Amino acid sequence: MPHVEQSILIRAPAEAVFGLIAHQPERMAEWWPPIELQERVTPPPTKVGSIAHYVYNMMNVSIRGEHEVLEMTENRRLVVKTISGIDSRFEFDFLPESNATKLTIRVDYSLPGSIIGQMMNRLIIEERNLKDLQEGLQNLKNIVESETRV
Q: How far apart are CA 49 and CA 39, in angstroms?
């Protein structure tokens, strides 16, 4: 299964970073470029079993789906898996570092298709996904740091 993984240091406590990602999932479209829409299906608070609906733009194709929280350790780790749409799993790890948080996001995903389609995935889609993740992390950093005083 292809994957992308990136880390960033955010000058904010883990509570602030985790809070925006886990407890305000509808804000994901503000910081992760391919997310057109993210909205809760189950009411807050976010917990294991919570479900959200998303619209993901993959190279100008909007893909709708839902994902479910599989694992959640407050201010430390969040794992979500799609239950429809693109087959994927997102792992968010939050590591406190003095007055900052090292956030690592890993996304494992698969796309249906032939061997040629899988090769195209490696060459084109994985590069796009990595760029989107890097841009998303920088956007998230800017948002959290602007909303948090350390």
A: 15
| pTM attached to this predicted model | 0.91
Cα gap 49→69, rounded to integer Å: 5
Length of the chain as a residue count: 150
- Specify the DSSP class assigned to residue 4: E
List the CATH code of the domain at 3-147: 3.30.530.20
pLDDT in tens, 6-24: 999 999 999 999 999 999 9
Question: Domain coordinates of the chain in residue numbers?
Answer: 3-147
Q: In what order do the strands lie in the sheet with 77-84?
A: 3-10, 100-110, 87-97, 77-84, 61-73, 51-58, 35-40
